[in-house]
Fold each of these.
Amino acid sequence: MKKGRIKVMLGNEACAEAAILAGCRFYGGYPITPATEILENLSRKLPLVDGLCLQFEDEIAALVAVVGASWGGTKAMTATSGPGFCLMQEAIGLAVAEEAPCVIVNVMRGGPCSGQSTSTAQGDLYQARYGSNGDYSLICLCPSDAQEMFDYTIKAFNLAERFRIPVIILSDEVVGHIREKVVIPDAKDITLVERKAPTCPKDKLVVFKPEANDVPLMPGFNMGYRVPVISQAKSLNGNRGNAKDADDNIRRIVRKVEDHMDEFAEVKVYGDAKAETAFVTFGSVCRSARSAVDLAKEKGLAIRSVEVKTVWPFPDKLVSEALAGAKRIVVAEMNLGMLQREVQRVVRRPEIEIELFSKIGGIYPQPQEFLRFLEEKR
Amino acid sequence: MNPIGEKYLRKDFLPMIFCPGCGDGMIVQALAHAVDELGVRDELTLTAGIGCSAWIAVYTHADVLKVLHGRAIPAAIGLKATRPSRKVVTITGDGDCLAIGGNHLLHACRRNIDLTVLMVNNQIYAMTGGQVAPSTPFNAKTQTTPYGNVEKKLDGCKVAIAAGATHVSRWTTAHPKQLIKALKTAINHKGFSYLEVVSQCPVQTGRYLLGSGSPEFNLKWIKDHCVKQEDPSKWAEVEAQGNIPIGDFLKLEQPEFMEEVAKMNQRVKEAQAKGGDR
């Protein structure tokens, strides 16, 4: 049982509460349903801790300012939903290329385009991974309840600082707007990670030369290092590089994340881990799948529900292990089969069809529907 | 090397990418002189976007954040917000600042946040090869207006004044002394400073707009066509002659954004300590 103060709060409020405890002192935002409560909450909380919450003219400015604040030496974040997330894509690439730790929350709503502002969806799964141009890697966490909105916000800041990347919290309208119990630990019980600063003489720093773990040390601005941080493919000293420099740079910023997945990858299994029937879910759909597992159990049917918590980089090994021995695999999600394609890629057993239980249009799947799917499809 | 160059150039990044005769090198020099004379080097922070002028920041030996096209001002706000003692100078161009980044200019002016925006105006998209910009004159032929520009140009100084900037100047690369002085005033000004520098681009502007790719010709064009007129009510007369008004146009003392934020935070914390209503 977790220890701490118990509060009933919105998923979005839990995110804002955790951001303050994680040390976030700059928030750049723009109002958008269903993420606005994060902006509203931080505009109340940040002044109390000498932080700044600024509502920008658009989401592009919001995320670029977050990158500026990050290089300024501060933990910084933004939150948005689909259309705003579209506007942020170029700046996500900026945070990746300039190795600026930051946190981006996307509380998903229906798409494409303006879609359904007040309805839930999970259609931004690929956008969270592949939305910006070029090759890159980042970490994407998917909370299923208000408690995980809290926990993953802390985790997101820690991973951002550890890897010097943007970390995306891919939430959805159900998780953002659910009001439920959240356990808030004492600040002293929360482990925080901070970026590592260089200690070498000021004129000796090679600004993008990595440490053994492929992450370079990060000097704050105005510490005397006078660093050049450009958005182009760069050589180790920060200047525009040649083909080899670019190749080295791109491979390193991918490797620094993907070679260390053991540090953060998380897949949970609910129900009977040996059951022949398995659901695979992420985000809010995990909740309904859990109820379906419980309902099935009452009827004497064993089901396991595999919950992918860190969707990017996709945890191939953990998902494969969690699905070992399953005879029937149903991917349940609120899009037309994005997670399904990842599971198809990972589970290479020709005798098994990876089935899709898909709900779109803003309707959240009910537990009974999972069971009906199992019966009707058979 | 000249002692100012020795001190302020990022020597391991040389040679510069600028074309022969470009005004950007002159602006690197003016910025170095201004910073040196003010003695604010340790607090100097530069941001830039995309375009030739963005490299002015990179060649300056300071902490530099070069970001997306048009987004140098938001990056500057993030840096200023996290340490208000920083002297943040944003280097931008006419396309970067008035086209793709125009929205950010408007709102930074309105906020009166203590930044200096140094906008290098060469009247064209130069790095991409001479396309029409918001600052390109009516009728001008460029690579994307081969039959003449049918749009009116946008005047950055007028925009800045209308949007609430509290310090607005325009000088040129043909006025190096005045430029250094204006830069010093702008950096020292407590509030949002918009300083435009009309600069020569012999390769694109010179060849396509003005009829000669010679640097001397282009610098002389600036000298002949930029006319000191600090009274905005008389700008129409200058413009009617096909000329550009230059000078120090506006200096107002108004509440600065980060100071107001600090006051608000103090007020809110005191109220909270008393347990009262904020």
Amino acid sequence: MNFDFSDDQQAIKRTAKDLLADRFKLERVRELADAGAYDEDAWKELCELGWPGIFVEEQYGGQGLGIVELIIVTEELGYTLAPVPFLSNAAAGLMIQAAGSDEQKQRWLPGIASGEARGAAALVRGGEAKLVPDGDSAEVIVLCADGGASIVERSAADVEPVATMDSTRRYARVRARGGEPLPGEVGPGVGAGLLAVAAELTGVAQRAMEMAVEYARDRKQFGRPIGAYQAVSHRCAQMLLETEGARSATYYGAWTADAQPESLELAASMAKAYSSDAGWRVCSSSLQVHGGIGFTWEHDLHFFLKRAKVDALLWGSASEHRERVADLSAVGEAAAV
Amino acid sequence: MDLTLSPSEAAFRDELRVWLAEHHPGEDPPGDDEAFEHRREWQRKLFEAGYAGFAWPKEYGGRGATMVEQALFGEEMARAKAPSPVNVLGMVMGGPVVITHGTDEQKERWLRPILTGEEIWCQGFSEPESGSDLASLKTKAVKSNGDWIVTGQKVWTTYAHKAKWCMLVARTDQDVPKHQGLTYFIMDMEQEEVQVRPLHQITKEPEFNELFIEEARIPDENVVGGVGNGWAVAITTLMNERAGLGAAAAAGVRMGLEELKQLAHDRGVDQDPLIRQRLAQLEIEVELLRLNSWRGLTQIMKRGVPGPEGSLPKWQWGEINQALTELAVDILGEEGAYWDSPWTYRLLRSRANSIEGGTTEILKNIIAERVLGLPKLR
């Protein structure tokens, strides 16, 4: 029993944290968000380091590591709000790797792993996917509908960019039918994709909590730091509870993906449900701690708040995943643990 | 990261599971005295099988269990719905204090009868005017002819009427800052000068007592850890990390949740969308309590100190147990009002979960100050 990263995984975490802290200072994130752009140079750098293919099997050009390594990197990307097309590409790769034929994997995974021919993942309802990260710039889109998935090339789909409240990432609406079915079981790919979002939300919550704590230490009112007042400090303790909960759920889910796949579906829905609520609540609470300044465009907190909400709405809301949890843990189903 | 049990851990758990299935004492019989003796018998059985004083070093009659074994022990006890052994305060608080701070004579005198259940221990910390602010306590001990003479009042004293020994913190110096003037005593309860009065809680049970102490006598050799060191000694008891406490708490609420799901199913409300949302939220939070507990345990084993997640389980557990019993009574509807419904009892008893063993507000203060580094209010 050891609920912690290995030394190699710790090293990945440190490297990712340091690199991203340097490349994506908040001024840079703001600049990119205002321009609606990604940092192409930084993305190229991450591609050269092999990040997009971290979980892709070596025979398809990836690093052949696991979902635990994937979520380590994703959490740090969330923490810095790095404007790069990582999550969408990873989600597409996870589904193709889980359910694609060998031919489909050979055709698409190397481009996803190198970042040169990216993928995107679309949750289709009624012939339309309303919120597809990077749907407008991917080469290939994995359409995920009830019970199965298929692939279409972007050129064969009707893709319309949409402006969302999250300006640090590009989104699109995608209308597409048919496509080339992925013959295998896509569930494990979907589960891992959900965990990647949960990891991003964990990183976002961590950052918003740190911002609140730092502000509560510095900001003085009535002659003392506001963090000395329990109305404020207890809010911060609540942020820790929710951030650590999101983290535990995400790390556990990632471990099931690598080592105990029969528990993945439930663990992934638990992680997505909890982190969706936690991400929003922690950011929202952080804004309250900041008071008026937290409500201004010039403060950086709103970028995290908005990413948290859009991530919460992406690929199934907290309520939808709780409904899934209720199904999977109902009386007569296999015990959760 | 590996969340499976090692072969030896799994073997330990399986052996314990079999033992508990064979030796489970069953429910407490009616009547407080009968229930008490029943649990004393249970303590004896645990002792004979080597399961009492599980975390204590072997040289003091314990088992020297690893932290993982302690956590598994707590999980399995909860899973089997085994009652607490009668001397739980002696085993988790009194014994460890004597082992850490006691003299050889004190160890020789006190440790073994704790494990066998021959001598019951109770805890005299809280006072009517000193709850969360424990260091403000007023019970006074004055040295006279080699003995200490104690006067004061204590409250929330479980098993005081059955106890032989009381872990008592009293003020021995009025002229120094409040944390420095305290001393930790082991007081003999079998004296006229100590009067016990049962305290009926909102469930009407007399689970706790009040102690009225009027010039009780404590020999000097019953001071533990030195005169004036009472705060530090008491803190080691409170901080004495009961590894596996979180895991045991998680296993306890897991059992409660399974009963709740069965109740929802039996009452035909398990397809109701609102009930399903609440059940699912509890499902997630029970699982997170378990995961946070194991993460915290890993941090202690690897680094010697708990990580930030280690301070969360007590708080989480109280909230979960309260929400769980509220949902059960909502499902029962009008029948939830009935006094003899077991869920009604649990609804009421769980109100104490966010108070006993540290209020949620104090836990949040600790997290804010020690984990997040926010400034102190005081």
Amino acid sequence: MGPSDETLALRSRQGDLAAFEALARRYQSRVYGYALRIVGDIHEAEDLTQESLLRAYRSLARFDPTQRFVGWLFGIAAHVCRDCLRRRGRSREHTSEAAADARSDRTPRDEAADAEERGRVQQAVRSLPIKYREVIVLHYLEEMSYEEVAASLGIRPDAARRRALRAREMLRSRLSALA
Amino acid sequence: MSRDCDKARTRFLALEDATLGTEDATRVCAHLAECGECRRAWQEWQADGRLLGEALRPVEVPRDVAGAVVAQLRSGAARPRIAVQRRWVLVGGLAAAAAVLLALGALLLFGKRYEQIGRVASAEGQPLARQRGARYASPIAPGAPIYDGDELIADGRSQLEVGIDDGSRLTMRQMTELLLHSGQSRRRPDCGLEPPHVCLHEGEVVIDLKSTRRFCAVGTPLGTAFVRGTRFRMKYVNASRALLEVFEGEVIFSCPKGEARVTPGGIWVVDGAEGIPKPAPDLTWN
């Protein structure tokens, strides 16, 4: 097991780029996964991952080593994705998310059936307003507790739970409509 | 749908998350056992949860974004992308930056030169403080202000306790010299250590941190102790030995030879030749 995230973050803060590279490699796929589920476009998700990591490096002076680094990093990624969606507006429809989900260990028929199901759920998640979507993605993709989700998004834990409950209700009705 | 159904359904999230109290969980389970409609709703809820877990599964980033970021940082060319159609944002940003620069200039010219970070809580003997840039150290008494960048000195008959404005406490034992870099000032510390820290030149300091706003590390020439919500003490004995004892939380001791996690349970010794701290159960602090 290598050094902890927090130790690497402190070393990065002292200008140790090798430490930051180790951190960035540790989290690049997770940040990418989050960005992809939020914006729904593989190319945009790559750009947002890059921007999130750069922004994290520049903001290391504000990182509190008593907090978990991963929560802090996803807080930055959430901001970056929100900014992107604000810039983008609602004019563009993104459909490349499913391309990232292909798994080579399945038969094409199984994969197609699963992909259809996943696509339906992903579409329903994408249709949620951003404040509900980010709670759902952090909880189900990142497997964060609602306390951790709340810390990342800068909201109270009960607010995170309320949003999750509302999101699940919206998802239920949208999934029923899509079925 | 009855009132009980409503109550049960608003608790599905907590039930799934296992954060519902035992009494509430028992009540919801009892309701599910007798209400077929809610039982179906709960089954749908669980199925949706599984679907979400499957649909939002992790993915691999298709290219080496980390490598690209670090290359960008190494070349010093790390700049946020700006969309062409958003040029007006750049113009506005430049205007705002100019205003900020003017304000900073005014602050540099007219602002306070030293930032107070705490006060002397108690003192024994005749401890001294030397402000950054001052030629001589002056005696300090309880209530005296302590500034970022101060060098504090306790001789063989003096001790000093400093209350930091974030609630933390630093206690300097006899024969101790240290320098405070709270990280809030614009000046860079001479020792090269970036995070807000206490630079321990000689002797022993006991630290009870309430936050890491002012300090999050103690640096010595042998290595640096990074803290996490911690109460601990550190003694820089000489160029080849330092002692560390953690009372609460943990300390990450980092030096050129590596790092070690120091937890409560006795004294750890840092041997200059080996670098990494090791438990020293037979050693006494003095």
Amino acid sequence: MSLEKTASIVIIGGGVSGCSIAWNLAREGVRDIVVLEKDTLGNGSTGRCGAGVRMQWGAKRNCQLALYSIEFFEKANEILEYERDIEFDQSGYLIVAANDKEAEQFKKNVALQNSLGIDSCYLTPQEAQEIVPHINTSEFVAATFCHRDGHLNPFHTTEAYALAAERLGVKFYKHTEVTGIEVKEGKIQAVQTNRGRIVTPIVVNAAGGWSKDIGLMAGIDIPIFVQRHQILVTEPLEPILRPMVMGFAYNIYIQQVPHGSIIMGRSDATEPFDLRVTPGWQFMEEMTRTCGTLLPYLRSAKILRQWAGHYCNTEDAQPIYGPAPGLEGFYLALGFSGHGFMLAPATGRLITEMILDKPLTIDVSDLDIGRFERRELFFEYSVV
Amino acid sequence: MLYEKGLVPPELIDTTRPSPERRAKGPYAVIECFQEIPCNPCSISCPFDAILPMEDINELPRLVLDLCTGCGICAGVCPGLAIFIVDESKGDGTARISIPYEFVPLPQKGDQVLALDREGQPVSEAQVLRVQKGKKNGTPLVTLEVPRDLAHTIRFFKTREEQEEMIPSAQAALKSEDSQTNQELTILCRCEGITVGDIRRLIQEGYTTVDEIKRISRAGMGPCQARTCGPLIASEIARLTGTAVEDVEPSAHRPPVKPLPISFFMEDATNEP
């Protein structure tokens, strides 16, 4: 398939965000949309993520974005007319507070979430144990739970968006790497790739771990830093862990997927800022210690595989949405700080509204790139 | 035939059949081992020295039928499940076949089962006469009563439960006469139960790397971690897309090399919480 010579919009990045943006734009009637992916769809952070989706956040914007997204996921198979299944399983998130300070923050989070229509609640360790039997209650002081949180299959979700977008005429080019962005008089002119050049007035940077590099090609230095995050997966087991169990200070997220495997991850603040995705031994030791202490009955579960992907972090752990100042036609949908998969429906909707100059479904004007210079930051602490 | 399809050709089968006199006399072993491999448990386990000692461990076993009592020890130790005990001495039109059977649960004495030929096709009903648990690490032997004229045809069986639980694709494969359909229904990824047909459809949909197929279908995500199916998927991609197999990117292999319990990585931890 030879590359298009012109496009009305070029989306860089075939992860779930890029695919969602493409579908939302096409559904609004935009034609000649091109998605460029240097590898295969979902090969970056999307296909390597922990696959959880939650509304239990500490920042109002994240709560709103997640609420919109979960309501979309609940109906996504039908809306996207997907023949396979995105496997959305709403068995909830149980989030544990490791200390009193965190428990105080959780009380505030629940109040915020409830005020936005998110049905979460604050629990004692004993109440938490009723939701997750066998959890080691001596390891935490309180918990919160939301039954509408859950997880879904990232590969199928991305495919669902991509197939629906393709039916609306969007062109996807896999194995097509962007090598340059042409800018003239403060306006986007064209995108150069290893397979040719596409003339376009609009570029959306949804390149996840590579979005900083894409920004530099257009002369925009985006304040994000990329870190490796690792995950391991066990052999399939009978259903024994229904909700996702998560702890921020405790540094764990762990869930059992419908297929039976248990997937768990944690973060490591000492990771260097680069694009490596090779698995590390240290993670295996720390992850198993954390899991084996909080959920001791999983100690005999066998590990099949570990892998890694990128977190594309911002300083406040909230995404950057919107146009890049001083460069007409360059839009940013990046810096999701590990949560791009779960926010993808909102991302697609909002970027579409911004490009088409429509009123925003959620006012994310304060999530622009300029907030870092203005120092108007609201820090999200509810992250692993 | 033997190397291409894994089926023993009839002329080789004929060599295992004793004289009519020996068949009428009592039980005997039938050794359907036709490939020279380094393996000798049958010859060293026979208490009657009926299977001759091997000078070279790659030799095929040689059975002296006059010394064989049909005791079944060799059938229980053969790792290839290639030895059967046949007893045609009843003279009432029936025969007994003892078949090594390594699935669980074992059938019970008195069960009706579906007897299968070497290709796995059903050929008759049969009754379980005896179930011998394997001694030491031996394979259990299940003795069936079958029509005598099928004594050299029947080599396996399915229990009632297995017939009911048989996955639809396997049922269709059993019924299908069409080799193309049979091939499509062949399981390619055994851990996740993905067929050759599933993989081919995904390749036709445009998924032309092993990793893409893995992510959509789970092929290669199971306990073997694509060690078995990965190269098979790569060869299907190569065939259907007209590329050389060495140009198909293999799936990423990640640690651990074999499944290991969580406790293995925890210092001073045991499996018992």
